[in-house]
Design a protein that fits this description.
single chain, 433 residues, six-stranded mixed beta sheet, four-stranded parallel beta sheet, 18 helices, elongated, disordered N terminus
Length: 433
């Protein structure tokens, strides 16, 4: 007998908590929307949502987050839906996690552990795996309270992927030693990345980084601009390991375009810290291209979350180009409402609409290396320099006299300096990473 895919998916019951609408403390997100985003995360993790509950109260209950009465209601409804795991859209303290495991008599995980589980399933490079494992162990360490229900229930399903399943068998001392080794490994990664960045600077190669909320279409845009094959999907957090490719701008100069992990609301601070080696690529970028899904009704809240994370990383001063993506999904009225300006572009990564304007604006915003017009005189036999000028610049005129050739061209200022007589010239070092 053939088993259908939906029959073997783990069933999850979702629980959200928010302050009562009458509470004095401000709420910076809509709890219903946050719970819907949790539903998307669960689907990305490979499970099926079979029910959900949302609890409002003036303050979180220190023992169970939602209170004893609500916990009993959740237990009854989750059992009736045959849920194998209850997932909270909120970070649970070790005490809350233990109490909920006992009162619900079910596997319980929170939003952070769910995100870590997705990351563990997506990390492909050694670097990504190191960063995920470090974040998992830092999350699990304070929650290891002996061999109680937490350990016994983590036998399979979401929340148990990656190294966490094996590390749970270690005692605290061995986990701390592993954390130290992982931190050393990531520090080595940071050093190697720093060397690569120094090499780029020496060769006047600027990095343009794509940033934005998860599932905004960054990887689709990256693939279209670079002809790369980065995995894309409607699932959240498909891109985890950063990818860098060369892109040729209208001025004929080449820059490095970097695709990075998507941001999300309520991203745990220690997860940001674990991915510091990857996110440092953003710090060294000459320009951030902030991609926003213009068709998403929550795009303003998503932009706020991106802004908050960029502030956390300390890179709010980096020049930024806002890109409205998926404009092919908007009608004329909605498109008319979009913010416009010299540092804004509208594109469709799916259809290619707006790409030339986007590349032109990237060109214009890289003012640290402006386009200049210059005249060069070479030996007529200097084919390497001549070919490079045609490839990396916009040649306006060429004049031959005797054994000399005079070329007037537009190109990046840094390349003009490298092409001056007497300077060592290697075309490959000027155009490739």
């Amino acid at each position: 007998m053939r088993i259908r895919k939906e029959q073997i998916l783990e069933k999850a019951y979702l629980v959200g908590w928010a302050r009562s609408r009458r509470a004095s403390a401000p709420v910076d997100y809509d709890p219903e929307e946050s719970l819907e985003e949790l539903r998307e995360l669960v689907t990305s993790a490979g499970a099926r949502v079979v029910g959900a509950a949302l609890q409002f109260s003036p303050e979180p209950d220190p023992a169970t987050l939602v209170g004893r009465g609500k916990a009993h209601e959740i237990r009854v409804n989750a059992r009736a839906a045959h849920a194998g795991v209850v997932i909270f859209d909120h970070d649970l303290t070790p005490t809350q996690l233990r109490n909920l495991e006992e009162s619900l008599d079910s596997k319980v995980i929170d939003r952070t552990q769910l995100i870590l589980d997705i990351f563990a399933s997506r990390a492909r490079s050694r670097e990504g795996q190191l960063q995920v494992e470090l974040a998992q162990l830092n999350y699990l360490l304070p929650r290891l309270s002996g061999r109680g229900t937490l350990l016994s229930r983590l036998g399979g399903g979401i929340g148990t992927r990656g190294p966490g399943e094996q590390q749970l068998e270690f005692d605290r001392r061995r986990i701390r030693a592993r954390i130290q080794r992982l931190a050393q490994g990531i520090e080595k990664v940071r050093s190697e990345r720093a060397l690569h960045r120094d090499h780029r600077r020496e060769n006047q190669l600027f990095t343009v980084a794509l940033v934005g909320y998860t599932n905004a279409g960054k990887s689709t845009l990256f693939n279209a601009l670079t002809r790369a094959r980065v995995s894309t999907s409607d699932r959240l957090f498909v891109t985890l390991d950063p990818t860098v490719r060369v892109v040729k701008l209208p001025s004929h100069r080449r820059v490095l375009l970097s695709d990075t992990v998507g941001f999300i609301r309520k991203l745990p601070p220690h997860l940001v810290a674990a991915f510091r080696a990857t996110l440092e690529e953003l710090e060294s970028s000459s320009l951030l291209v902030q991609v926003t899904d213009a068709s998403d009704p929550q795009h303003r809240q998503q932009e706020t979350a991106v802004e908050h994370l960029l502030e956390t990383l300390g890179i709010v001063e980096t020049p930024r180009l806002l890109v409205w993506n998926k404009i092919d999904l908007l009608d004329d009225a909605l498109r008319a409402r979009l913010l416009r300006g010299p540092r804004v572009a509208e594109v469709s990564a799916a259809t290619g609409e707006g790409f030339q304007v986007l590349l032109q604006k990237i060109d214009e915003m890289l003012d640290a290396d402006p386009i200049v017009e210059a005249e060069f005189e070479f030996s007529a036999g200097d084919g390497e320099r001549l070919a490079f000028l045609h490839r990396a610049g916009n040649v306006l005129s060429t004049r031959y006299e005797d054994n000399r050739v005079t070329v007037r061209a537009q190109l990046a200022k840094s390349l003009r300096e490298r092409l001056q007589p007497g300077r060592t010239f290697h075309a490959d070092s000027l155009t490739h990473s």
